[in-house]
Amino acid sequence: MPLNTLENSSPLAILNKIFGYDNFLNGQEDIIDHLVAGDDALVLLPTGGGKSLCYQIPALVRPGVGIVISPLIALMQDQVDALKQLGVRAEFLNSTLNFQQAQKIERELVQGELDILYVAPERLLTPRFQELLQESELALFAIDEAHCVSQWGHDFRPEYIQLTILHEQFPHIPRVALTATADETTQKEIRIKLGLLEARQFAFSFDRPNIRYRVVVKNNPKSQLLDFIRWEHSDEAGIVYCLSRKKVEETAIWLTENGFEALPYHAGLDASVRQANQQRFIKEEGIIVVATVAFGMGIDKPDVRFVAHIDLPKSIEGYYQETGRAGRDGLRADAWMTYSLADVVLLRKFLESSEASEQHKLVERRKLDALLGFCETVSCRRQVMLGYFGEELSEPCGNCDTCLDVVDTWDGTVVAQKALSCVYRTGQIFGASYLINVLRGLDHTRIIRNGHDELSTFGIGEELSANEWKSVFRQLIAADMLNIDIAGYGGFRLTEKSRPVLKGEKQVLFRRDPVTRKLRKPKKQAEVSENPDIQRIWQRLRELRRDIAGEQNQAPYMIFHDKTLLQMAEVKPQTLEELSAISGVGDKKLERYGERFLSELKSA
Ligand code: ADP
Ligand code: ZN
Which domains does the chain have, with CATH numbers? Predict the structure, then answer.
């Protein structure tokens, strides 16, 4: 069907013909119907939930052009490229265009030759653009990444606050705000600041069932990371998050030396380097980006197969958002994190020594406690995480480390008493290594000089190894039974919560750190199927896709997603009609690439 006759087609027909999908995902249809009817909406869907279609389809169904406000230039380009592949008349307006290019698009806008226009908020707010809008026929306004309106979030965009102008200037054009931010305060802020108090809210589970969460205790982080990638994700795209720029650089070099394509990304790099590294990550396959949190927002890449944290994130929100960049396409993905006693100490120190107000610290302290609780839990990680967002998962998920490998607990009451009393008797000024040496009865000069070999706690802890003691101290700090002296030398101190333990009034349960063991056999290539035949065909289809992507200077996923190729390899369609039944093969892509994929399938 030619695109200019799309208006008044049903949303389902557009989903089938243009996007090549058979069914709506959870919630999409209701949202689309609501917008098509001309009403406002606030959409809360997790990453990978299919937000884009929620405004793209109404923009095609309703007469006029859909205006999409997006804060991220790279993302606009991506979305527009993807829509053009589908034959939709989409463009964007932002600072990357020169005057002539922008003028041409503005003309098309006013003349009704566009279906969807992406625009940066600062451009939208200019008087000139407001005038152009007055002259154009408008289908709707979509405000993407709506949490950017929140002053408290790290993605704050001041221009977003002025977007209320849309409501004032165009009261009859439906508006939809979309975000993947799960926390409730931000959701309220969006409603108030964007003038969406009356908008209907569409909220869905924030669960990402295809992501497998794992937390391992750090012993040698670099080689643990290397093993993880080598054994489970060789040749696959992923992101490794670190806290500091220095660590980003070091880790990227380390991975490169070990044969991976790893690129650094942090705010200290030149903008052109950052841009180039991001582009390679998007356009090539199997690239790893090692980054600080500066990286990730606005990356729409559907086939990121893992997100690894070698430093602790600051909160569960942060962790959820960062790991959420894995597996947008719904295929299996891993969220993997290492952490140690030193990380816990460091984060606690950061927090206590910050200049923030007491009120602010209180909030931060709660967030950190929740994160540490997530790390130390012996029950399902997904239940803990979703519970934090106020969502209840009735059964353990079966797809996290604690579900897959039940974690042992042990009664650590006596051990905790030994540790706490050692802290007390040595004067509450020492950190873990010193305390562990005293407990294990090592006659180091420093210990002898301090007379600590005379203490009753000297040598009472020989039953545990140094690593086991570390685990004990980590859990005592995580549970707030010890805190850290910031004013002094960072030694451990007793807290309110230590007293009942020392008095024998409270039982303490510790988590037994699981022994790390190799999981599966090393993978030479990204395996999607157990069936070697399907695996082989899939690889051939991927090569063809890479060729086509190269010809067009596009990312491979712009041609077809992995999920679509996998289905082709499984179903092996032999005719164009059979091919068109594959999910993700719409009319335009069938016309453009159908023959080439068919002949590849026939000869495979
Ligand atoms: P979000 O913006 O919410 O993260 P996207 O809009 O990028 O999600 O969609 C996530 C993935 O799901 C994309 O790969 C998209 O093509 C796919 N998708 C969206 N809607 C459908 C559908 N109805 N059927 C199949 N796949 C879909
Ligand atoms: Zn679980």
Answer: 3-203 (3.40.50.300), 211-341+369-404 (3.40.50.300), 409-511 (1.10.10.10), 532-603 (1.10.150.80)
